[in-house]
Amino acid sequence: MAVDVDKEREFRDTVSVENKALRLNLNENIYGTFAEIGAGQETVRNFFRAKNPSGTIAKTLSAYDKDFSDAIYGIGENKRYVTEARLKNMLAYETGLIEQRITRNRHPNKLFFSYANTVATIDFAKKYKGHGWLGIRFQTKPKEDYSEIIIHVQLHENNAAKQQISLGILGVNLIYGAYYFHDDPVHLVNRLYDHLNSHKIEIDMINFTGPAFKDVDNRLMSLHLVKTGKTDAVMFAPDGNNVLPADLLYKKNILTLRGSFRPVTKVNLNMFEQSLELFKKENKVDEERILAIFEITLFNLKNEGEIDEKDFLDRADLLCSLGQTVMISNFQEYYKVVEYFSSFTRERMGLTMGVSTFIEVFKEEYYNHLSGGILEAFGKLFFKSLKIYLQPQKNAKTGEIITSENLEVEPRMKELYRFFKDNGRVVDIEGYDPHILEINSRKVFEMIREGQPGWENAVAEDTARLIKEYNMFRKKE
Asked: What are the record keywords, sorted (predicted)?
């Protein structure tokens, strides 16, 4: 077997957990507190095991009892403890305390930090795998405002003790990265997995804030998590901030529109608006609990070669300006999207797509990796009465409008298609604007890229204004 030189070098350059803790302990200026609840004191244990722990540890705390935890950090909303809000309360309280108790007169050069986690490991019945929040508030210069890194993790190991060990390793990697890699956040994220892998711990959300990260766009950090296989999907809200998918998707009725959105055209908006109205009328769909998601797959981002970060941010900015929630995923097949959502909600779901995309879904070649082939995939795709809302397509040559009634799938798939069609799983969007069916998003993109006039008619007025104002999608000089 050939040796992967890059991997060998990375292995040699990976500092052991013990040596990371030791280097921090021997730095006379790095000094802080550890507050760990829910999974023992796994992170700080690594610092105690290394030499000179008193050089780094001001205090360690495990407020395991809920009443003690409430007395220290306050009562959380709905009495929940494994939340981002609880973690932030812990970090704010502990950094405030160290500032009160360690005087600057005696320690003018100290770089204070507070590390905290609040975690639920796998339960005894192994019904819930476990998850948790980890974070650090820290200074890179004495007396400066604190910077912060907040992480959410899913725990995949099937044993609580193993999960605790992995959490301890991740905690050390986080503290070490905050101090030694804060000037390179992408490298910092990569080093979080030193001595770990995504089969043990999955980081599905990360946010950087504060003076050390003033130039960091957290959406790019989310993209990096997906691009490097650390998680399958990330989400951010209309304000552009990363959000935890589990929190956003929980018990929601979900309507998803997938696309390249390069840019968002009137066709996209019309599809979305019309399918949303149809979705609201579905049985057992609570209008108050509908979450609409515009999804961009990594496959779409890579379609034009190496991922262009500005191009990605341009798409994200346009979608957020329209008030939309955005998901970036590693799911090329639609059934994987449905499987993912189904892990967070049992409510009704809908997918919005155009005729050409729908025909592609019925190609058997995409499901050769499944033992059950396309039948297995469709069993997952049409989970829980899922419906597909179909945007008609205009045949460029004949002018014919193609709908679910006259579209053509592969001959072997006709009976399968008819089964889902006859059972009401495929619904035509009838309130479409016939004047926009000729809009071709690739042509619109090329016109913008080349600086050609006339593309403005294919997008919303505010979208056109933003594209011009921020010089989006233009060819690099």
From this structure: Receptor
Q: Residue 317: which residues within 8 A CB-CB, separation 6 or more?
A: 240, 466, 470, 472
108: in domain: yes
**Percent of the chain scored above 70 by pLDDT?**
96
CA distances from 385 to 123, 276, 348 (A): 31, 16, 7
| Domain end residue (candidates: 159, 194, 216) | 216
* Side-chain-side CA neighbours of residue 83 (13 Å): 13
Check whether residue 405 and residue 448 sit in a common domain: yes
**How distant, in Å, are the alpha carbons of 257, 279, 305, 352, 465 from that of 308?**
22, 34, 8, 26, 22
Q: Spell out the long-range contacts of 303-310 with Cβ–Cβ below 8 A and sequence spacing 24 or more.
A: 303/260, 307/223, 307/227, 309/220, 309/223
What six digits make up the tokens of 468?
């011009």
CA pair distance 378, 335, nearest whole angstrom: 7
CATH of the domain at 380: 3.40.50.620
Predicted confidence (pLDDT) at residue 442 exceeds the cutoff of 80: yes
What is the residue range of 411's domain? 247-469
**pLDDT tens digit string along 234-262?**
999 998 889 999 999 999 999 999 999 99
Tens of pLDDT, residues 188-215: 999 999 999 889 999 999 999 999 999 9
CA distance 248 to 246: 6
Q: How far apart are CA 292 and CA 289, in angstroms?
A: 10
114-130 pLDDT tens trace: 999 999 998 876 777 89
Q: Are 24 and 16 in contact (CB under 8 A)?
A: no
| 175, part of any domain | yes
